[in-house]
Specification:
Layout (H helix, E strand, L loop, with lengths): L2 H28 L7 E6 L7 H8 L2 H4 L3 E6 L3 H10 L4 E5 H9 L4 E8 L4 E5 L14 E4 L5 H14 L3 H4 L1 E4 L2 H9 L5 E4 L4 H6 L3 E6 H7 L8 E6 H6 L1 H20 L2 H9 L4 H14 L8 H13 L3 H4 L15
Helix pairs in contact: 2-12, 6-10
Length: 333
Amino acid sequence: MNRNNFLRFFAGGVTAVFLAMIGSVAHAQLKPTGDGGTVRIMINPAGTMGIGPAVIKKYGFDTKHGINLEVVSYSDQKSATAAIQSGSAEMVVFDWLAAARLRASGTPVVGIAPFLTYVNSVVVPKESPLKTLADLKGKRVGVAHKTGFDWIIMQAAAQKLYKMDIGKDVEVREGAVPLLRGLIEKGDLDATQMWNSLAPEMLASGNYRTMVTIRDLTQQMGLPTVPFLFFSMREDYAKQHAGNARAFVAAYRDAVDVLMKDEEVWVEHGNRLKLSPDSLKLFKEQVRRDLLKSFAPDMTRGLESTLEAVNQVSPEVVGLKVLPVGLLTAEYQ
């Protein structure tokens, strides 16, 4: 064999080995990580949190990655918490403060994937002169939960931005969000907190406008963008079935890719939430803007900064002095 033939033979051999290695890596990457078991996730079907799991099931992303995702509906946080504590479910979608409280109280849940940053808002009638939290002084304000993050951050923002004790300076009306919507429609409220799944219909009607979003308030306070809602898993289950945790995260990432490009899934979700075409357009734009695909390294510090801020105004309501260690993990990403 002459020198040129030898070099061609050698190069061809190296190429073949290299391609074989790539093929092996690709095969390993495509191989499902789950063990084929069922992962039960608690979802409130009335809100936005159901869209990710719905897309996962529609496109078979759970099966693709080696798990069977079973969606279990819940109507209130207490029932979802009970299911996690009893082992009747492996996963739940909670806001970060609820998850942190749960972990701190002895129920070890861990965030394995983010979902949305702050998405809720404060709405007012279109012709209302109200523009900022400072304008709410003496007004009737609808609040979903006095112990919920949205109200706590409103108090913190009012104090920092306007030196205002909003808890004392406004007339608070606490109630379920659909009830608050009915009250403002009857003229019994001047402003109200509103879920991102209900606000688009109000805005599309032309009768209401957004006064401020919760995300706006956190940014005005200089706080970083963090996951407000994330997918929590029982820590014992995640450790025992790490492959299933990774499988869910991979399936969720696939679902996010679909949500960012596909229009059909939005129509289906809009029909489920009974959104008109105009309100669905607003809803889709907002969710696409606020979807999070992966935990960033600085998100835990961002949550710590946010916790410090809200504890300055309402520590007894927050009920949490420090963020529990290990609340978020990138181990399964």
